Amino acid sequence: MSIKVKFFIPDPLNPSPAEAVPTAKISGQVTTKTVRLPQFSGSTFYYCGKVRSGIADGFGEIFRKGKIFYRGNFKKGRPNGKGHLYFSDGSIEYNGSFKEGKFDGKGSLYTFHRRQRVLSEEGIYRNGNLVKGTKYLHGKKHLVGRFQNTRNGHLISGEVYDENERLAYVG
């Protein structure tokens, strides 16, 4: 039986477990061989970083198809503390805090609009969802306030802005 390193692929709602065989004997710092994950359309991932008892723990990086996917801290195999998720072009998709592999704490999430990376939302996350902060539409401020702690996070209270970023509603 071969030794495997356990780590989780970060996701706002459901971090995915992965196990990969190290390329050398585990001694604090390790790089693994690639592992194919069906839930990511068969993409291959590998981990490079600190391990404790065969589990990612401390600073590490996850690579997807040979490109950086996540860089940051791990605790018991899951992204925990400060970290960054990356788009396939190498630009940052999420910059902020994680807890048990999910967005948690202060962070900023980006998306693409007309081939340009733009801010999508920023503020305070809980359990993978924005609960307080600002949501942007095509890079322009759209909603500011408190949001439901759900995936679609409807505005509970705050401000709504029009397409020219003028205040349209307060409530």
Question: How would you sum up this structure in a few lines?
Answer:
By secondary structure, the chain is mainly beta. It has strands at residues 5-9, 16-20, 29-31, 35-37, 43-52, 55-64, 67-75, 78-86, 92-99, 102-113, 116-126, 129-137, 140-147, 155-161, 167-170.
Structure in words:
This protein is an all-beta fold. It has strands at 5-9, 16-20, 29-31, 35-37, 43-52, 55-64, 67-75, 78-86, 92-99, 102-113, 116-126, 129-137, 140-147, 155-161, 167-170. Strands 3, 4, 5, 6, 7, 8, 9, 10, 11, 12, 13, 14 and 15 form a 13-stranded antiparallel β-sheet that branches. A hairpin with a 5-residue loop joins strand 14 and strand 15. The relative contact order is 0.11.
Characteristics:
171 residues; mainly beta; 15 strands
Set down the secondary structure blueprint.
Elements: E1 5-9, E2 16-20, E3 29-31, E4 35-37, E5 43-52, E6 55-64, E7 67-75, E8 78-86, E9 92-99, E10 102-113, E11 116-126, E12 129-137, E13 140-147, E14 155-161, E15 167-170
Antiparallel strand pairs: 1-2, 3-5, 4-5, 5-6, 6-7, 7-8, 8-9, 9-10, 10-11, 11-12, 12-13, 13-14, 14-15
* Terminal Cα span: 60 Å
In helices, the fraction of residues equals under 10%
Tally of helical runs: 0
State Rg. 18 Å
Assign the structural class, choosing from mainly alpha, mainly beta, alpha/beta, alpha+beta, or little secondary structure.
mainly beta
Choose one word for the global shape.
elongated
Poorly predicted regions are: none
User: Helix and strand string, N-terminal first?
Assistant: EEEEEEEEEEEEEEE
DSSP summary, beta strand count: 15
Query: How would a textbook summarize the main sheet?
Result: 13 strands, antiparallel
Mean pLDDT: 89
Strand content: over 45%
